[in-house]
Amino acid sequence: MSTATIDASRRRFDVKRFLANNGALVGLLILCLGLFIATPDFLTGPNLLNIGIQVSTVAVLAFGMTFVIVAGGIDLSVGSVAALSAMVSSWLYVGSGVSGWIALIAGLVTGLLVGVVNGLVSAYGKLPSFIATLAMLSVARGLTLVISDGRPIKTAPEVSFLGGNLGPIPMPIIVLVASAIIASFLLNRTVLGRSMYAVGGNAEAARLSGLPVKRIVVIVFGLAGLFAALAGLLLAGRLDSAQPQAAAGYELDAIAAVVIGGASLAGGLGRISGTFVGALVLVVIRNGLNLLNVTSFWQQVVIGVVIALAVGIDVLRRKTRNA
Amino acid sequence: MDPKPLVTLANVTKSFGPVQVIKGVSVSVYPGKVQVLLGENGAGKSTLIKMLAGVHQPDSGEIIMDGQAVSLPNTRTAEQHGIATIHQELNLVGTMSIAENVMLGRTPRKFGMVDRKELRRKAREALALIGLTIDVDTLVNELGIAQQQLVEIAKALSIHAKILILDEPTAALTRHETEHLFKVVEDLRNHGVGMLFISHHLDEIAEIGDSVTVLRDGEFVAEVPGSTPEDELVKLMVGRAIDEQFPRQKNSQPKASLILEVSKLGSKDKFKDISFTVKAGEIVGIAGLVGAGRTEVLRAIAGADKYDHGSVRIRNKPLQRGSVEAAIKAGIGHVPEDRKVQGLVLDASVNDNLGYATLQETSRFGLADFSGQKSRAESVAKTLRIRMHDIEQPIRSLSGGNQQKAVFGRWILAQSTLLLLDEPTRGVDVGAKVEIYELMNAITAAGGAIVMVSSELPEVLGMSDRILVMRDGEIAGELDAREATQDKVMTLAARDTDEDL
């Protein structure tokens, strides 16, 4: 009996603390409420599914990015890696006639390998990850153009299936939910995930505590590459073709989603749930502005302001809490 | 009748949120006098000095200068009133030269360009105020902490500071560097500068302090003369008597079993020909000046750095070179020099920090053992009396002593049998210090062994069974702790004591 009461009091829901720790979620809810009032088109089944599909690419990319940012790095190459992975998959399928499943897996492996290269260069080559992945951004995009000769290539049906529907539910949403669960599990439950926080929080302390910091960095970038590949396949699947310019600039959306979700670019902080909310914030704003017929030029302005506001509020909140 | 104080904090209070951290404290700083602020971590010393530095403003009470109440809304105003603070974390730009640092914010100009000649001249002038003659073009990065500190003091004086706040200036200094600093302080005293001095080293107080204000839990406890005996000061500070500052039963006959055997260890430009052994139940102290290679030897044994020559054996088994993982497996626990930079993940919880070394070995199928970790961490935190609200609170919010205990706790969780301690009580208050010493006793009593590097000679003398003295990367000699004195250690440590400054 007595233990039950202690538990109850400890788990008592603290509204203030919840709000303080979930600023992005509160922002998202206010945003949705505003759009619901502003336009009848917002809260409709098709529009919500549309949001779900749109968020899937950004969020999956951003999950991979969350690992990297939590571990104290940054990955600027994810957009290019997404495009390259999808392109390799389609190129193999069309060019050498491998089966669709193989093509799909080859796409994922491509992303993983490119990510591992990022990790190796960053951990063992001692290049800052910003530079290593900036280089990879260019290399991967270039390779995409080389193998495709600058033209789109048709995807394997198995990849197109990722962009299709399973019954009434779009596959991207299913993939999104599955990868959110996997990413969250990795980050919260596994030794690897806990080590990422330690490496990002203080790499030297982690090393002196016996954590294999370099190996962890390589795995983290490998995961980011793998998630980028998945996002690239989702995107290609929706269009039934791998586009050479696909996902260009998406790395910035991914970083924005992670940061809006409360992660610190200094490393050591960040959650998958936060990143998911961050990705939703970005996509819902774009969707809402579209519904309100705001031009895409102004949309960019608004998104930029939102990123600055979200992070600014977060910094302020941390400052007051630490004082 | 005393001369008029330069500044007085009169009955000031300060609260952060619901917590009142300063409860009606008064302190005065007189020209040519050193006023010591004494108290454990969390007693409110840093809040008080931040009031003088213009960082915090008192909720009530007054800051009085020249008989007038003043307000110091920001650091700039404080500077204009002639108050300069030398913080523990120095405010210098490492990649700029000494001259540029000294003149930062008031760089002399000529035709809109930096007047380099004038810059150097003024900087030299500033350094001369404290008798420092180093090339002002040297980058601050290339200086040791002691010299950086002096540069910062010179900078403060060059902006005509009348009141100097020295926040634990000796924490990172060797004995010799401290003496040099005290000479500077003496000089400043003669020039009528008033100083507010914070230190955890009680022995320094008699040496340098004119008067001591003791704080406890944000309250004024007493103001006593600087000559007050140390145990009296401790009693005032802690609120109870501490029986012994160094509770070590000297171990003249350690158990026969050899734990650590270092032979002919060498690392280019760092140390050479280091050979020694440590037996179960022993504490071996390594003394020496900063830069003598003590930390480097410790890090090499711990696997943190690679070495070039020689070998390390643990319980008669060779230890792999340069691998922290292998060292941990062999039972080594390393408490590094700087807990904030090398020891802790400050944003992570106490629980996480305690568990890093055991994260992998307690996992199953790659899954972290959360419930097991938490209960182990809670039991260790209880044994070590780590004071906190909750094991999940960020370790950043703990006091220095409790943070340090957590670094120890990590190795207790890992059941390490050989602890390598680098400045184990740096920045730790008296109460927690004794707790750490008792912990060291408990570890050796249980058959463990300890190698301790420390710049605090009383600590080395008080806690070690044997003392190795290092000089210029070599072992200059070994002393039995029962016969060792500060003089004997220093003679070995410094061939020419003026060389390191």
TrEMBL record, chain A:
The chain crosses the membrane at residues 18-38, 58-84, 91-117, 129-148, 169-187, 216-236, 257-285, 297-316. It is a multi-pass membrane protein. It comes from the Bacteria. Its main location: membrane. InterPro entries: ABC_transp_permease. It is found in: Cell membrane. Keywords: Cell inner membrane, Cell membrane, Membrane, Transmembrane, Transmembrane helix, Transport. PANTHER family: ABC TRANSPORTER PERMEASE PROTEIN YPHD-RELATED (PTHR32196:SF21), ABC TRANSPORTER PERMEASE PROTEIN YPHD-RELATED-RELATED (PTHR32196). This is ABC transporter permease.
Automatic annotation (TrEMBL), chain B:
One of its GO terms (molecular function) is ATP binding. Signal peptide: none annotated. InterPro entries: AAA+_ATPase, ABC_carbohydrate_import_ATPase, ABC_transporter-like_ATP-bd, ABC_transporter-like_CS, P-loop_NTPase. The keyword ATP-binding applies. Keywords: ATP-binding, Nucleotide-binding, Repeat, Transport. SMART domains: AAA. Pfam families: ABC_tran. Residues 7-242, 254-497 form the ABC transporter domain. PANTHER family: CARBOHYDRATE TRANSPORT ATP-BINDING PROTEIN MG119-RELATED, GALACTOFURANOSE TRANSPORTER ATP-BINDING PROTEIN YTFR. This is Sugar ABC transporter ATP-binding protein. It comes from Arthrobacter cryoconiti.
